[in-house]
Design brief:
It is built from six helices and 14 strands. With 236 residues, the chain is α+β, with helices and mostly antiparallel strands. It folds into two domains: 77 residues, Phosphorylase Kinase, domain 1 (2-Layer Sandwich), CATH 3.30.200; 138 residues, ATP-grasp fold, B domain (D-amino Acid Aminotransferase, Chain A, domain 1, 2-Layer Sandwich). The strands form three sheets. Strands 8, 9, 10, 11, 12, 13 and 14 form a seven-stranded antiparallel sheet that branches. Strands 1-2-3-7-6 form a five-stranded antiparallel sheet. Strands 4-5 form a two-stranded antiparallel sheet. The longest helix is centred in the middle third of the chain and has 23 residues. The protein binds thymidine-5'-phosphate (TMP). The site of thymidine-5'-phosphate has 12 residues, from helix 2, strand 12 and strand 14.
Length: 236
């Protein structure tokens, strides 16, 4: 399948039309940003790793009954996906307090919480993806009640599938961000990516960070962390 005109370029991916009006090609970049684009850099090999790790996890989720946009991987950095209209929400699932939640509530990073926390942000770079709640979502018509119930249910199920899967590989799933899209018939599917860019992965034994926090916080060994995740998940 050929790439036609580019329809979108984000911070980490480009999206292209194809000859099939219902299919797009996503191309993952090595570009890395943090703090809403304020910090910029390159993580060599990130595009290939995030593409392959995302597809590996989306296939696992499909098998467990989560509908996704995944169709077919066509190269190390490119994948055919179903065309969706992105629901303008970032769904954040948290098992352990870290990052902005730890800061907001004055918790030490790594604090276990009694229950999984679900948060929503309005996906809008100009506004810095502000945190919102259900009332904002319905008032702004970002999603209907039925759609949000589905999105929240899928997000919790994804959390339990991925947490169990990763625990077996010695990885603790601290938190992660999901995006959902709507197919032309209105079906809600998981879209975007699931990768070290969008998840916090800590080594279960040592607590070592194996994700984009190494880049955000200048911890060093950024590429090594991405490679380690790919190795544990896919053996390469
Ligand atoms: P946070 O603690 O900074 O709010 O991040 C929560 C999770 O969401 C973390 O796993 C990283 C991910 N994330 C993104 O994927 N994109 C973003 O723009 C931000 C801020 C976080």
């Amino acid at each position: 399948m050929k790439k036609l005109e580019q329809v979108y370029e984000g911070k980490a991916k480009k999206v292209f039309k194809t000859e099939d009006a219902e299919l797009f090609i996503v191309s993952y970049k090595d570009d890395a940003t943090a703090f809403n684009g304020l910090k910029k850099g390159t993580i060599v090999g990130k595009g290939a790793i995030n593409n392959q790790v995302t597809n590996h996890l989306m296939k696992l989720l499909e098998k467990s009954g989560i509908p996704t946009h995944f169709v077919e991987e066509i190269s190390e950095t490119e994948t055919i996906v179903k065309k969706v209209t992105i629901v303008p929400l970032e769904v954040i699932v948290r098992n352990i307090a870290a990052g902005s939640l730890a800061k907001r509530l004055g918790l030490e990073e790594g604090t276990k919480m009694k229950k999984t926390v679900l948060e929503y942000s309005y996906k809008n770079d100009e506004l810095g993806d502000p945190m919102i709640n259900e009332y904002h979502i319905f008032a702004m018509e970002f999603a209907t009640k039925e759609e949000l119930e589905l999105i929240a249910g899928y997000s919790m199920k994804i959390n339990s599938i991925l947490s169990t899967y990763l625990a077996d590989l010695g990885i603790e799933l601290i938190d992660f961000k999901l995006e959902f899209g709507k197919l032309s018939d209105g079906t809600i599917v998981l879209a975007d990516e699931i990768s070290p860019d969008t998840c916090r992965f800590w080594d279960s034994k040592t607590g070592e960070k194996l994700d984009k926090d190494r880049f955000r916080r200048d911890l060093g060994n950024v590429e090594d962390a991405y490679h380690e995740i790919m190795r544990r998940l896919m053996g390469k």
